[in-house]
Design a protein that fits this description.
Structural class of chain B: mainly alpha
Helix content of chain B: over 70%
Oligomer: heterodimer
Number of helices of chain A: 8
Structural class of chain A: mainly alpha
Radius of gyration of chain A: 22 Å
Number of domains of chain A: 1
Number of strands of chain A: 0
Largest sheet of chain B: none
Number of strands of chain B: 0
Shape of chain A: elongated
Shape of chain B: elongated
Distance between the termini of chain B: 57 Å
Largest interface: A-B, 57 and 63 residues
Number of helices of chain B: 8
Largest sheet of chain A: none
Radius of gyration of chain B: 21 Å
Strand content of chain B: under 5%
Helix content of chain A: over 70%
Chain lengths: 268, 264
């Protein structure tokens, strides 16, 4: 009786912990085999990079403009208009766009668009036993498949962060224009409040989001099993774990950045 | 002509999806789905058991995020007692619907695609048709009905999870404001219509996600690879859809009226 109850509670927890451990091991292997010569993954890296770029640019554009206009744009503008201080919207966008939503919208779109495509691709190869065939041929799947995706996703999320910043702020500009206010004060408060710490924090955070997404999606793809249903299930689990991982990491990172750099929270 | 092919393709896909969704919604509103009410209840059970905790989890993390940003922001303007304003608006109006939409798309949407897609690949859907069961009603309309029965309650609880997380972050973690002071401002800056609007946003997102999931799953083709590709494709559409609904909802519900207890 006690044993069944204990099994019911602890076996799922154990499975989760084992999976997290496996992902950590994959991360370690990926980093080691990325650094150790030879470097055969150049071509695959470029093709994955272009693949992610081609797939994500349009959903990301729509998402960041919509998010920037709706959440921080309209709501904050509404609040500031009540005090006649709409010029402060620029300062608020430093907090909203650079520190918060540009990185996480990039992560959501990359995980949902490029991450799912990676899992579907690797999962299909696993199901058709192509990964085993590669190993028989003496080709290391981690070095030739995971490393280029890991690096490409990290680079592409870092660069997309800048892109999301531009379009997120464009959403803020739209909100200012909708309220019939001039743009000069928006830019003035934006640039007085923006700091280099904010920007590098945003870029580092976003790059690490890319790493999380790549590892989760590659792991889930490479361990897919069970035919047609298995690949779909792998994609489903990959995107859920990637979202949870990204947001949990986001909370820890933002909290650490805000607590260790009090000067960036000062409103100028 | 090459570049025109892509938008043309999008428009025709969009039309197909709209047609298919119209069929499903028609089955639910035409009450034909109640022939399979048992299946709908089974889908409710699956939704509750497999998705609730994950959705609440993501909303909880987002609530923490709203809390710390609000606490640091209001501290920097010298009014830490007002972090409740930021938390209330950030949670209820914007990020809880978004977080709910993201997790619905990730967990429920792709789950439906994977499930229906593998049924299609292994010819189970054709088998249903052969047995004289209307597969759209049995598979898609029941799922939509299940979503409509379960999700409003799940969403209200999710708002609770977000509020609790913001409280933890602002009062217990950062601690610039007392519990009473936080709640005074927090409840002052929201009211039941706000919650209703927020819920409408989330329910439109959820309905769209379930319908898109059904479309891509039901029409999957091309073996195991096809199921994976269909799952990935549904996610693209769902993410764009969630963001657009988020923006349009904000514009519609709060665009012309801030609904804040300030001024006249």
């Amino acid at each position: 009786m006690v044993r069944t109850v204990a099994d019911r509670t602890f076996l799922p927890a154990k499975a989760v912990l084992e999976e997290v451990g496996d992902m950590m091991i994959l991360t370690g292997k990926t980093i080691v085999s990325a650094l150790r010569p030879p470097y055969p993954y150049g071509g695959e890296f470029v093709s994955q990079f272009l693949f992610a770029l081609r797939l994500c640019w349009f959903p990301l554009l729509v998402s960041t403009v919509a998010f920037g206009y709706g959440a921080p744009g309209l709501q904050a503008a509404n609040f500031l208009v009540l005090f006649g201080a709409l010029d402060r919207l620029g300062g608020f966008f430093v907090l909203a766009s650079i520190r918060e939503f540009a990185p996480f919208v990039v992560a959501i779109v990359l995980a949902g668009v490029a991450g799912t495509a990676i899992t579907a691709d690797l999962g299909a190869r696993k199901i058709r036993e192509e990964l085993d065939a590669l190993q028989v041929l003496g080709v290391d799947p981690v070095k030739n498949l995971v490393v280029p995706r890991f690096l490409a996703l990290m680079v592409v999320t870092g660069l997309f962060d800048v892109y999301a910043l531009l379009f997120g702020i464009f959403g803020g500009i739209l909100a200012t224009l909708v309220n019939g206010a001039p743009l000069g004060p928006f830019w003035a408060t934006f640039f007085t409040n923006a700091s280099v710490t904010d920007l590098w924090g945003s870029l580092v955070k976003c790059t690490l989001f890319g790493a999380i997404i790549a590892i989760v999606c590659c792991y889930k793809g490479m361990t897919a099993s069970g035919g047609a249903a298995g690949v779909g299930r792998a994609v489903n689990q990959a995107v859920v774990i990637a979202f949870l991982g990204v947001f949990a990491f986001n909370y820890v990172f933002t909290q650490t950045l805000l607590a260790t750099h009090p000067e960036i929270t000062v409103i100028k | 002509m090459g570049w025109l092919a892509v938008p043309k393709d999008w428009i025709s896909t969009f039309g197909e999806i709209a047609k298919f969704c119209g069929k499903i919604v028609g089955q639910v509103y035409g009450l034909r789905v109640f022939r399979f009410f048992g299946e709908a209840l089974r889908q409710c059970g699956i939704l509750i058991l497999s998705s609730t905790l994950v959705i609440w989890g993501l909303v909880f993390i987002i609530g923490l995020q709203c809390g710390i940003e609000g606490a640091y922001f209001t501290r920097s303007v010298g009014a830490p007692a007002y972090s409740g304003v930021f938390a209330a608006w950030c949670d209820l109006r914007e990020l809880v619907p978004y977080a709910f939409g993201y997790m619905m798309a990730a967990k429920v949407g792709t789950g439906i695609v994977a499930e229906l897609g593998s049924m299609r690949i292994s010819d189970e859907i054709d088998a249903l048709e052969v047995m004289g069961i209307n597969s759209v009603t049995f598979l898609c309309a029941t799922r939509l009905l299940a979503a409509w029965m379960v999700l409003p309650f799940m969403y209200i609880a999710a708002i609770g999870a977000g509020f609790f997380a913001s409280y933890l972050a602002v009062v217990q973690q950062i601690g610039d404001v007392s519990s009473g002071g936080f709640f005074l401002i927090f409840w002052m800056f929201q009211n039941p219509p706000d919650m209703l609007f927020s819920m409408m946003k989330a329910m439109v997102m959820a309905t769209g996600i379930v319908l898109v999931g059904c479309y891509y799953g039901y029409n999957a083709s091309g073996g195991p690879v096809g199921v994976g590709t269909a799952t990935a494709k549904s996610m693209v559409l769902n993410i764009v859809f969630v963001h657009l609904i988020g923006m349009l909802g904000t514009q519609l519900f709060w665009g012309a009226n801030p609904r804040a207890p300030i001024g006249g």
